[in-house]
TrEMBL record:
Residues covered by the Peptidase M24 domain: 312-523
Organism in which the protein naturally occurs: Pontivivens marinum
Name the record gives this protein: Xaa-Pro aminopeptidase
Family stated for the protein in its record: Belongs to the peptidase M24B family.
Transmembrane feature ranges: none
Lineage, broadest ranks: Bacteria, Pseudomonadati, Pseudomonadota, Alphaproteobacteria, Rhodobacterales
Residue ranges of every copy of the Creatinase N-terminal domain listed in the record: 17-142
GO molecular function: metal ion binding; metalloaminopeptidase activity
Length: 597
């Protein structure tokens, strides 16, 4: 199994670890210290060595920060984790604080009128520190440290990962690394930059057509790179991890170095250097002479080429077979009242493994039954595991990593009798999902312009959800990829080739959670009969039935009903021939036209 259900942390350990950290801070003359859920690359997933926030507090979410002061310790979390955090931290020693991005500074000022706060410059970005300084009082000093005090009290901290790095073939990459480097080097020239320092592992993986396994769920190696204006690259952290095959793949224009020479190379860079101030660590910025805030890889990487799109289609068809087999199994066994959340997640992974092409799951499966489904990013473990009962909803959010693509899908299914309130909420969520799926829009618009369309049916009923409607997805890379996203805060325009999730939801605390998620790819603009402008549109990549039992047909418009029936018709046409006869019979019933009911 890729996924483990052991409890990685416990609230009971927090008090002693907090005491040890405060003692270490005192010896250094510090009044506080910041512990972000981050590594030197600012990725969503981190290696076990970098799980400092989880080790200290018990909180296992993918985003958050702890500010440790002499008498207080605030754990800052966003709306996804409001319920989760209270079940994971020791509330006598840590205080959960709602976080939208600007609350850390004012909270520190409130609890520490004067003093010195330390931070690890590898774990924070220049923009983050600049924003924090702007909200602190002049009597509170922020100090970059040479080492991390928490690492000094974490006795059994795991070693840094150093797994092999492997080539990513041209058949799935769709473009030679040399061509990518030449194209991006030309962009540096237009911005009068002599080089770009890259710290995002997925950017480096895409640029050099390589993959790795340094962190779970995302196939990247934790490296740093400098792209020069002549298209050559200096790659740091890879020298001792390559073989002849990889060196031949990279070619002579990619020079390999150990990390111990990285600082000297940074100081030696001449002219203006491109650096992303929102993702690169302060440690790098402090060693460069002059920078321009720019990252050349993220936008081109997000525009999937023809090979990457075709690979994603193939991965989704393969993943759909596993999902359909799983949903049939859940239908047959769920009402028995014997299935646990862990057993359900294990069974789903076994169906994905049966494809014989699964490289990893793309994130920890969210397997939430009944009230646990209302915890947006719920991660079942041996302590929280519960048995699915008839009359409940089962929310399963999962995905796979395949060599040709990354998948992410959520299905919420009824187990036994259907609660009318849940069916009404499900239908409203479905209407929002359909609104995005069939949207046509002019070039230049981003998530902030269309996110409300997914929420409008819920808003009309006085309901909403506390997360974005969707995120970018990589091509056998991160399941969460920027810069584009389908959220009210993102103004990055959608472009052809972008792959995004479409996942509105509704969560009733203590009762149930609902989310329906498909992945979409932005298609080339096309004309509309009688229209004036070519419009962009989405192609749906995910091909898995949506639970008909939870849909109230009269709440759907004729257009929405037509979309749903056409979607299910396509699912049957593309997936039916790929599953065994017994499963095909179940699939045909699950995809029967709702308009005929």
């Amino acid at each position: 199994m890729y996924q483990s259900f052991e409890m990685a942390t416990s609230p009971e350990t927090g008090a002693a670890r907090l005491r040890d950290l405060r003692a270490e801070l005192s010896t250094r003359g510090l009044d506080g210290f910041l512990i972000p859920r981050a590594d030197a690359h600012q990725g969503e997933n981190v290696a076990p060595r970098d799980e400092r926030l989880s080790w200290l507090t018990g909180f296992t979410g993918s985003a958050g920060t702890c500010a440790v002061l002499p008498d207080d310790a605030g754990v800052f979390i966003d709306g996804r984790y409001t319920l989760q955090v209270r079940g994971q931290i020791d509330l006598q020693h840590f205080t959960p604080v709602g976080w939208t991005g600007q609350e850390v500074g004012p909270w520190i000022v409130q609890h520490l009128p004067t003093g010195t706060i330390g931070f690890d410059p590898w774990l924070h970005t220049p923009r983050e520190i600049d924003d924090l300084r702007a909200t602190l009082s002049p009597r509170v000093e922020l100090r970059a440290l040479d080492d991390n005090p928490l690492d000094c009290v974490w006795a059994d901290q795991p070693a840094a990962p150093a797994d092999p790095i492997v080539p990513h073939g041209l058949d799935v990459a769709g473009e030679l690394s040399a061509d990518k480097r030449r194209r991006l080097a030309a962009e540096l020239t237009t911005r009068a930059a002599s080089a770009a320092v890259l710290s995002l592992p997925d950017s480096i993986a895409w640029l050099l057509n390589i993959r790795g396994s340094d962190i779970a769920r995302t196939p990247v190696a934790l490296l740093f790179a400098v792209l020069h204006v002549d298209g050559t690259v200096d790659l740091f952290g890879a020298k001792s991890r390559t073989d002849d095959t990889l060196r031949d793949h990279l070619g002579p224009d990619v020079r390999l170095h150990d990390m111990d020479v990285f600082a000297d190379h940074l100081r030696a860079l001449q002219g203006t250097v491109a650096l992303d101030h929102s993702s690169a660590p302060v440690w790098i910025a402090d060693r460069l002479n002059e920078t321009v805030d720019f990252e050349p890889v993220r936008l081109p990487k997000a525009r999937k080429n023809a090979a990457e799109i075709e690979g994603s289609r193939a991965a989704h068809r393969r993943d759909a077979v596993a999902m359909v087999e799983f949903l049939r199994w859940l239908d047959e066994n769920g009402p028995s009242g014997t299935l646990t959340e862990i057993a359900i997640a294990q069974q789903l992974e076994s169906y994905r493994r049966a494809t014989n092409q699964l490289r990893d799951i793309s994130f920890e499966t969210i397997s939430g039954s009944g009230p646990n489904g209302a915890i947006v990013h719920y991660r079942v473990n041996e302590a929280s595991d519960r048995t699915l009962s008839p009359g409940e909803l089962m929310l399963v959010d999962s995905g796979g990593q395949y060599a040709d693509g990354t998948t992410d899908i959520t299905r919420t299914v009824a187990v036994g009798p259907v609660d009318p309130d849940a069916a009404r909420a499900f239908t409203l969520v479905l209407r929002g999902m359909i609104a995005i799926s069939q949207l046509r829009w002019p070039a230049g618009l981003g998530g902030a312009h269309i996110d409300a369309l997914a929420r409008a049916p819920l808003w009309s009923a006085g309901m909403d959800y506390a997360h974005g409607t969707g995120h970018g997805v990589g091509a056998y890379l991160g399941v969460h990829e920027g810069p584009q996203s389908l959220s009210r805060r993102s103004t990055v325009p959608f472009e052809p080739g972008n792959i995004l999730s479409n996942e509105p939801g509704y969560y009733r605390e203590g009762a149930f959670g609902i989310r329906i998620e498909n992945l979409l790819v932005v298609e080339q603009p096309s004309d509309i009969a009688g229209g004036d402008l070519p419009m962009l549109s989405f192609e749906t990549l995910t091909l898995v039935p949506i639970d008909r039992r939870l849909i109230i047909p009269h709440l759907l418009s004729a257009v929405e009903l037509q979309w749903l029936d056409q979607y299910h018709k396509r699912v049957c046409a593309e997936i039916g021939a790929l599953v065994p006869p017994a499963t095909r019979e179940w699939l045909n019933a699950a995809c029967a036209p709702l308009s005929e009911d």
